[in-house]
């Protein structure tokens, strides 16, 4: 009898592919030492058929496979950060195609390796609240998934924390960094921040095949929000938003990770979308969750 699927017996690592659903790089990379959730979904693979002669389902028809992968992790910038592959485009506007190896029941006799090829990020999100760590998540369109009892791309040996000498290896909202606005008003009290990148992927299938043949990124939308203090009662942000003054030059989210190419997230050229000024009897400092839109996002080494 096979082992049941044990919780806390899983793993995930990834590698860029040479082409869409092509050969992955021989060396793989961990996403984070603290992956919170991994979900592989087949989508609907059949449709039901009916006939006027019976109330029962009379048959099934096979449809195109629309596999997806969801990953959620404690943000831990490293030299081959998954976040960069979820956002960065090449000169032709394309995203890097990735290969993921997902193992379940890893420490048991019976295990399954889900080998996911042709993965491109539909979206990427990173968020944090006061007193908590940064959490990143991404949803991927997957070209193909094979379930196997044997590994294909070898698991990395060293953890990210090992590579970073264990010094504050995780991005913490208060302890590990700061948030800075330029060309706009500064936030002296910030309770949370949330950034989302939508790649607006379009998947394509060929006639006579149930497998995806391409996944093409569309326009990139970069949105989010931050809880910002309304200093002086909100005079400066009100003028910034209501009077449509100059763009925000940049918003820098510095996670405090000084090793790894994605320790700082910089949003460039944007505007606040709206503002709500609320006074009540809570006794809290005047603050507002202000949504924003930016034109570009860049990753760099944290400071």
Quickly list its features:
14-stranded antiparallel beta sheet; 3 helices; two-stranded antiparallel ribbon; mainly beta; 303 residues; globular
Give a quick precis of the structure.
The chain is mainly beta and 303 residues long. It is built from three helices and 18 strands. Helices cover 6% and strands 46% of the residues.
Average pLDDT metric: 89
**Count of structural domains:** 1
Percent of sequence in beta strands: over 45%
Order of helices and strands: EEEEEEHEEEEHEEEEEHEEE
- Which regions are unreliable across 5 or more consecutive residues at pLDDT < 50? none
Measured between the Cα atoms of the first and last residue, the distance is: 53 Å
The secondary-structure class comes to: mainly beta
Calculate Rg over CA atoms: 22 Å
Spatial shape: globular
The total beta strand count reads 18
What's the total helix number? Answer: 3
Biggest sheet record = 14 strands, antiparallel
Helix content: under 10%
Structure description:
With 303 residues, this protein is mainly beta. The chain has one domain (11-300). 6% of the residues lie in helices and 46% in strands. The protein is built from 3 helices and 18 strands. The strands form 3 sheets. Strands 1, 2, 3, 6, 7, 8, 9, 10, 11, 12, 15, 16, 17 and 18 form a 14-stranded antiparallel β-sheet that branches. Strands 4-5 form a two-stranded antiparallel sheet. The protein is globular. It starts with 10 loop residues before the first strand and ends with a strand. The model has no long low-confidence stretch (mean pLDDT 89).
